[in-house]
Amino acid sequence: MDAMSEPLHQLAHFIARHPRVLVLTGAGMSTASGIPDYRDKDGVRRGKPPVQGPDFVKHDAVRRRYWARSMAGYPTLSRAAPNAGHHALAALETQGRIGQLLTQNVDGLHQRAGSASVLELHGSIHHVVCLDCQASFTRSFVQQQLHDANPTFGTVAARALPDGDAELEPDTLADFHIPWCVHCGGMLKPDVVFFGDGVPAARTAQALAAMEAADALLVIGSSLMVYSGFRFCRLAAAAGKPIAVVNMGKTRADDLLALKVEQSAEVILPALLTV
């Protein structure tokens, strides 16, 4: 019997016993697609502190840093393709073996893999909104704006970071031009939930309704260190609904779990299709 056989059958049994299982995915779902994770196996955040939503709105320097890093990092994210784990979840949905899918990811890879019932808790990096007139733009449109306004910036060396971010040298930012709304000249912001921002109320209500309707919770690729994800574990536990986790390393909910499988999503999820 190989090392995956027992946890695979335990996970398959968990899903079979809970036909309305709610699936919650995090950054570990997309690492096999070449998108870096925020945290190490112990749940400790890597790198510099993230952009805070209130700071983005208040400070031109913060917006300049964000858009410069995003201009450098977005191409890596936009080229990322769904991995075997994404495709397996789409297949499990088609087979009727899982219910609603909530994701903390902003990369859109679940939808590209064919999952139909996806709620993006933290929004989508592929969309940008104007905070003044509420116009909406594709991120690719804004990327072209950025290139037009900063024609020499494409030659700057950068290291890819999570969610289309990139690490840049500070002296590359001084002359960087940030994008503005082509309709009203207002402030543009990626349509994502920054740290320090709240998940929109309507989206939260949808997610809570999905948790209420579910008979179990399956977390994949998340350390659950961010409360917007961990809250679903607390709700499930309070309602007596069992929780399973597929994740490499510790999670914030380890003491609440009925089952923990320390396997990568892109390996164990496709194997479920054969069980």
Distance N terminus to C terminus? Answer: 15 Å
Specify the number of helices: 9
**Percentage of residues in DSSP E strands:** 15-25%
From the coordinates shown, what is the CATH architecture of the largest domain? 3-Layer(aba) Sandwich
Q: What characteristic shape results from the CA principal axes? A: elongated
Largest sheet entry: 6 strands, parallel
E-strand count: 11
- At the fourth CATH level, what is the homologous superfamily of the largest domain? TPP-binding domain
**CATH top level label of the largest domain:** Alpha Beta
CATH topology of the largest domain: Rossmann fold
Number of domains: 2
Helix coverage percent of residues?
Answer: 25-40%
Flag low-confidence runs: 157-161
Structural category: alpha/beta
- Neighbour order of strands in the largest sheet: 3-2-1-9-10-11
List the helices and strands and how they pair.
Layout: H1 5-17, E1 21-25, H2 53-58, H3 60-79, H4 84-94, E2 101-103, H5 109-113, E3 118-120, E4 123-130, E5 136-138, H6 139-149, E6 159-160, E7 166-167, E8 188-192, H7 201-213, E9 216-220, H8 227-238, E10 243-246, E11 259-261, H9 265-272
Helix pairs in contact: 4-9
Account of the protein in words:
The protein has 2 domains: 1-35 and 82-122 and 198-275, Rossmann fold (3-Layer(aba) Sandwich), CATH 3.40.50; 45-79 and 125-192, SIR2/SIRT2 'Small Domain' (2-Layer Sandwich). Helices cover 36% and strands 16% of the residues. It contains 9 helices and 11 strands. It has helices at residues 5-17, 53-58, 60-79, 84-94, 109-113, 139-149, 201-213, 227-238, 265-272, and strands at residues 21-25, 101-103, 118-120, 123-130, 136-138, 159-160, 166-167, 188-192, 216-220, 243-246, 259-261. The strands form 3 sheets. A 6-stranded parallel beta sheet has the order 3-2-1-9-10-11, sandwiched between helices. Strand 4 (123-130) and strand 5 form a beta hairpin. It is elongated and about 55 Å long. Residues 157-161 have low confidence and may be disordered.
